[in-house]
Amino acid sequence: MTRYAKPTSLDEALALLGEAPWRIVAGGTDFYPALGNRPIRENILDINALYDLRGIEEADDHWLIGARTSWTDVVHSGLPPAFDALKQAAREVGSVQIQNVATIAGNLCNASPAADGVPALLALEAEVELRSANTRRSLKLADFFLGNRRTAIRDGEMVTGIRIPRAYGTGRSAFVKLGARRYLVISITMAAARLVVADGRIEQAAIAVGACSATAARLTGVETALIGRPVDASLANAVRKVPVTELSPIDDVRGSAAYRLEAAREIAARAVCFAAGLTPESMAA
């Protein structure tokens, strides 16, 4: 017999997780559609009464985004310009109705290669906070993903928040998504870029691409090539010329591997230019 529980405290939720396997549900925007006509056969742990896990807190050395924070919460937050890519990605997570209930932690735990929020969080050097009844640990987001639909969550654990170190919440960022249509679409590819510019030159660069490998990936080669470059009309072509060996796209119904690779290069160039404050005219090949 399946069980349903709606704990009212984190300690209660963690105690239940230590007793038996549970499917943690908040917004349920991935879980329920995936069921189709099949009955629920898992124990359901509804965390919607864990009010302390919703919201964004700012501390001296980090920002903490609670696991239950919705994408609408992110859009309307007062986060600095380095988080603009995350806000732009938030507006791409399904419809407005979905954004109102879907959570940032759910987007991560689903571990889809095409999860809209992941590239922006990678560019912010995000860390995932995990708790069990007896342990607390933090993982870099890149280490949290083990593959397509696979994460490093252990038995008895749940994600309680996403931490952004203040050192990486600087500069400006931008997010660009390519799909078969403008809205309500799974990505063919997407990219987020965060830049710190001083005296007209790039001091820091963080660029991540999703939907082009088993997990979203940082383009470290492009990042290195951009350090010290001037912010001018040559920037887009500078990005396009760097090999993107970090990506391993596949053929599927949304596009071929070859198309994805070229599209990722172009989308990354656009994200970099937008983060640098350049106009679309500056991106001409």
How helical, in percent, are the residues? 25-40%
Q: Please state roughly what percent of the residues sit in beta strands, choosing from under 5%, 5-15%, 15-25%, 25-35%, 35-45% or over 45%.
A: 15-25%
What's the level 1 CATH class of one domain?
Answer: Alpha Beta
Shape: globular
- Oligomeric form: single chain
Helical stretch count? 11
Task: Report Rg.
Answer: 19 Å
| Counted beta strands | 14
In the CATH hierarchy, the third-tier topology of one domain is known as Enolase-like, domain 1
Record the strand order, biggest sheet: 4-5-10-6-7
Low-confidence stretches: none
Tell me the span between the first and last alpha carbons: 61 Å
Structural class: alpha+beta
Along the chain, the helix and strand elements come as EHEHEEEHHHHHEEHEEEEEEEHHH
Q: Main beta sheet: strand number and arrangement? A: 5 strands, antiparallel
What's the rounded overall pLDDT mean?
95
- Identify the CATH homologous superfamily of one domain: CO dehydrogenase flavoprotein, C-terminal domain
Please identify, by name, the CATH architecture of one domain. Answer: 2-Layer Sandwich
Any chance you could write out the topology, listing elements then pairs?
Elements: E1 4-5, H1 10-19, E2 23-25, H2 31-35, E3 44-46, E4 56-58, E5 62-66, H3 71-75, H4 84-90, H5 96-101, H6 104-109, H7 118-123, E6 127-131, E7 136-140, H8 141-144, E8 145-147, E9 150-151, E10 158-165, E11 172-178, E12 189-198, E13 201-210, E14 217-218, H9 220-226, H10 235-240, H11 257-275
Parallel strand pairs: 1-3, 2-3
Antiparallel strand pairs: 4-5, 5-10, 6-7, 6-10, 8-9, 11-12, 12-13, 13-14
